[in-house]
Amino acid sequence: MTSQPQLDQLIARFQQNGPVRASSLIVTLYGDVIEPHGGTVWLGSLFALLEPMGINERLVRTSVFRLAKEDWLTAVKIGRRSYYSLTGSGRRRFEKAFKRVYSGAPAAWDGTWLMVLLSQVPTEKRKRVREELEWQGFGALAANTLACPRSDRTDVMTTLNDLGVLDDSLIFETRGQETLASKAMRLQVRDSWRLEELGDHYREFIALFRPLWQALSENKALDARECFLVRLLLIHEYRKLVLRDPQLPEELLPADWEGRAARQLCRNLYRLTARPAETYLNAVLETADGPLPEVNDSFYRRFGGIL
């Protein structure tokens, strides 16, 4: 139990599917907490952090072992203690994903589109290619035509090359248009990127965390441990939404787009809890050299700056 019933409700909600979501929560923990402190911690200190979430020692061990098999983590044993770090590929995946979580406002859009045609890609590879491009913000305009209003051509070509389909793909870039978001364009964007479904998930996020923000705004303070739990659950839920969000330009989004309110709420709660949570983390987490290293500079630039 904590001092805030709203926080207890969030923890109880997570625990309903705890065994299924433990590995995902550890991914969030490494990305939000451990990576800015150097990326390595003693396995035993993870037990203490995750115990309030209903994740016991056995489940932590099982989840960490699974993440190691999937090349997210690697272990070094010193005496009887195991210390888990991000692998090189794991760190690259973290940086790519969490950069989207903490990014500031998107840059202005110039009206150009990047389009990829998959009609010549072998049928058995199309599903994988589509999934990778959709993760980068592409939407389906037609059966084998994907488009993105904000994408780096070099990144896309690298992705296609890594998937072994670069020579089979057709890539086009359009010019900017005077009318960036006509009625027809907005309707196409709504359908191609399933914005209504994503908007529903953003509304659910707001409904989960707004009561806690309102309680804290009324000077109902949390201790350092509770701040850590809020921060972890906040980023865990927000991360899942942002990685599904194509992060379309403002010109293409509905006027009442809930993603804006969700981002502001996440930013406010994160700024409120980040520093107190660090006090708790420094007391609990250990590395092979003892206490945690200081956080890197990028930590203080999250969400446009942590005050």
From TrEMBL:
All copies of domain Transcriptional repressor PaaX-like central Cas2-like, residue ranges: 107-179
Highest taxon in the source lineage: Bacteria
Segments forming domain Transcriptional repressor PaaX-like N-terminal: 21-89
Domain Transcriptional repressor PaaX-like C-terminal: 193-282
Name of the protein this chain belongs to: Phenylacetic acid degradation operon negative regulatory protein PaaX
Organism in which the protein naturally occurs: Pseudomonas oryzihabitans
Lineage: Bacteria, Pseudomonadati, Pseudomonadota, Gammaproteobacteria, Pseudomonadales
